[in-house]
Amino acid sequence: MSAGWNTIESDAGVFTYLLTNLGVRDVQFEELIALDADLLRQQAPIYGVIFLFKYPTGEKPSHTPRDGSFDYEAAENLFFAAQTIQNACGTQALLSVLLNKEGEVEIGEGLREFREFTGAFPSELRGEALSNSELIRDVHNSFARSSPFISEEQRLATEDDDVYHFIAYTPLNGVLYELDGLQPAPIAHGACTPDQFPDKVIPVLQRRIERYPANEIRFNLLAMVRDLRIKAQEIGDQNMLYQEEQKRKAWRWENALRRHNFVGFIGEVVKGVAGEKIKQGDYDKWIEDAKVKTRTRYEEKKKAGQDVEEVGA
């Protein structure tokens, strides 16, 4: 049996270096903090956006989408893959944009060969090929957060679980498409050129968010754009170039940390500190001091009128 797909975070640094490690050049992701067309336009050129949202597990399949219309012909002419495995939807969403941008973006030899190999496949078989691609799966899994508490063999989600899903939006052949591997075909949202994309996609995203209760805020939006260091160099903005280089440095550090779990290390540190306190005869005093500090914080919060739970003496 082939190895499974692990969960990865919806993070600009993760997605940027995931593509880099797949051989893609001059592409990065930027997180958008607001649904604002002008904010999105500032990142131009924009290849598409990746949207993360809480998936309604109890929702029944439909022959017509709630917004837009299925374009079954586009399912044959574009790169569109059915989602056939859990935990791969983030990578599948970004590839749904990227593999439709060959000619605009240097996608690298590995992905080019994969696209050519699956070009004549129906969407279901494309999804199976993607799920079984060792290259894509291994790079994807290299960005999973290391944890000793999560098994790779995860159970299927139920209606009681919080399940999150990634989909992509991109302008292709003069049409704004929603690419969702759980749907039977790409969903067309009307005419759209690359220049119109910021103004066209924001209302579609707003309508989707409006389906949820007002207190639901768990959404994330990432824009796939050209490497912003190139723009900084083209316009001669040294400050922007420095900021982008610092951003990349921070992303590399964060991605390195994701590959390690520190539970064992922390456990050894705690054991070492406790052992040293016992050795010095300070262990009981150390525990009592901690209790006093906890009690003091509790009393301070209580006086400030904050809701607190009773703590042990």
TrEMBL record:
Reactions catalysed according to its record: Thiol-dependent hydrolysis of ester, thioester, amide, peptide and isopeptide bonds formed by the C-terminal Gly of ubiquitin (a 76-residue protein attached to proteins as an intracellular targeting signal)
Cellular component GO terms held in the UniProt record: cytoplasm
Pfam families: Peptidase_C12, UCH_C
Active site: 89 (nucleophile), 165 (proton donor)
Residues the record marks as site: Important for enzyme activity: 180
Domain of life assignment: Eukaryota
Residue span(s) of domain UCH catalytic: 4-226
GO biological process assignments: protein deubiquitination; ubiquitin-dependent protein catabolic process
Keywords, sorted A to Z: Hydrolase, Protease, Thiol protease, Ubl conjugation pathway
Enzyme class per UniProt: hydrolase
GO MF annotation terms: cysteine-type deubiquitinase activity
Transition state stabilizer (site feature) positions: 83
InterPro entries from the UniProt entry: Papain-like_cys_pep_sf, Peptidase_C12_UCH, Peptidase_C12_UCH_sf, Ubiquitinyl_hydrolase_UCH37, UCH_C
EC number: 3.4.19.12
Similarity comment: family membership: Belongs to the peptidase C12 family.
Protein name, UniProt field: Ubiquitin carboxyl-terminal hydrolase
